[in-house]
Amino acid sequence: MTIRIGTRASKLALTQTQQTADRLAAVGGFPVELVHIKTEGDVKTGSLSQMGGTGVFVAALRDALLAETCDVAVHSLKDLPTGAAVGLSIAATPKRVDVRDVLCARDGLTLAELPGGAKVGTGSPRRAAQLRAARPDIEVLDIRGNVDTRLGRVPGLPGNATDEVVPGKSCDLDAVVLAAAGLERMDRLDTVSEFFETDVMLPAPGQGALAIECRTEDAPHVEGPNGVLAQALAALNDDDTRLAVTAERAVLARLEAGCAAPVGAYAFRKGSMLHLEAVVCAVDGTKTVREKKATDGLTEVGATLLGIEVAELLLAAGAAEIADLAAS
Ligand SMILES: NCc1[nH]cc(CCC(=O)O)c1CC(=O)O
C-alpha cells in the first residue's frame, strides 16, 4: 500500500510536503509518493482576493482527497480556512517551527534603522498594519508572488537571482516582510535582517505550523482500531502545537474574520497554562486593540473557549469598528 500525498507545485509547498512525506514513511514503514495537484491559485495570476483568497490553494487539495486522488494533504495551517471540511479531518499538527515574522532588508537594516520613506513590501494587511503602527513614516507597498519573488524585490539579499533594478519586479524595495517559517523551510534564513518579537508584530493564527489532512475514516480515532496510516499520523502530532493553534484559530472564527482581516494571534503552552494574545489593527496603523488571557484548561475545548474569550474582549474593545473583519 502506497500512501499518496497531494501537494501544490510551489517550492515552499513541495519542500514542506516532501519533509512531511519522509517523516510519515519513516514512522509508518509504508511507501509514500507525491501527487502534484494544480490549484486555481497556481494557475491564475493577479489579486488573491479576486480568486476568493488563499482558500483557493486549499480547495483543490481537499477535492483531491475526497476524490481519492490522494490520501493525505499537507497545508500551511495559516492558509487553512477555519470552517471544517465535510468528510475530512486534520489528523496531525506537527511541532510548529518559528512563529515570527521577519524583516529582510537591504544592507542588513532593522525596522528602526530604515530611513523615513523607505519602501517595504508585504501582501498581508496584518503585517502592513503592524508595520505602519511601528513606523508611520515608511511606505508600505502591496506585493504578490512566491517567497523567492518577494525576496528578489530587495537588492543584495543572499541567494537572489539578479541585481537588476526593475520597478515592480526586482531590487526595487528597501525591505520585505515574510514568515520565518517559510524561509527556514526553504533554507533562506540568511536573508533575515530582523526577527520581530510578538510585541511588535503578532503572527497570523497558525503561522509556522502545518496541518496534515486526510479523509476522516483514515484519521486517528480516540476509540476503535487505527489503521497504519492513522497510527503514523498520530505519531506526527504535537499536542502543544494543536492546543496553541486551536486557540488562535478560535479567535479568527469568533471574529468571523476573513483571510485578509488584520488579525494576529499567538498562543503557547507554558507549564500548566495555555497563554493567548491577539491583536486587531486598523490597516493604516493608527489604531490597535490587543488582548491576552490564559487558561489551565489544556484541552481542545479549553483552548477553543480561550480563543472565544479573547475574541470577545477584542470586540468589546472596538475591534469591529477599527478594522474590516470580513475582508477576504
Ligand atoms: N501566505 C503564504 C504563506 N503561507 C505559509 C507561509 C510560510 C509560513 C508558515 O508556514 O506559516 C507563507 C509565506 C509567508 O507568509 O511568508
From TrEMBL:
The text of the family note is: Belongs to the HMBS family.
InterPro entries, alphabetized: HemC (IPR000860), Porphobilin_deaminase_cofac_BS (IPR022419), Porphobilin_deaminase_N (IPR022417), Porphobilinogen_deaminase_C (IPR022418)
**How is the subunit organization of this protein annotated in UniProt?**
Monomer.
User: Where does the source fall among the domains of life?
Assistant: Bacteria
Tell me, what's a Pfam family for it? Answer: Porphobil_deam
HAMAP family in UniProt: Porphobil_deam
Any further remarks? The porphobilinogen subunits are added to the dipyrromethane group.
**What does this protein need as cofactor?**
dipyrromethane
Q: What does UniProt list as this organism's lineage?
A: Bacteria, Bacillati, Actinomycetota, Actinomycetes, Micrococcales
Annotated GO molecular function terms are: hydroxymethylbilane synthase activity
Q: Locate the Porphobilinogen deaminase N-terminal domain: which residues?
A: 3-219
Organism of origin: Paenarthrobacter aromaticivorans
Question: Domain named Porphobilinogen deaminase C-terminal: which ranges?
Answer: 243-315
Q: What is its EC number?
A: 2.5.1.61
What this protein catalyses is: 4 porphobilinogen + H2O = hydroxymethylbilane + 4 NH4(+)
Q: What is the annotated role of this protein in its UniProt record?
A: Tetrapolymerization of the monopyrrole PBG into the hydroxymethylbilane pre-uroporphyrinogen in several discrete steps.
Free-text remark on how the cofactor is bound: Binds 1 dipyrromethane group covalently.
Among its keywords, does the record have Transferase? yes
**What is the protein's given name?**
Porphobilinogen deaminase
Q: Which NCBIfam families match?
A: hemC (TIGR00212)
S-(dipyrrolylmethanemethyl)cysteine is found on C259
Keyword list, A-Z: Porphyrin biosynthesis, Transferase
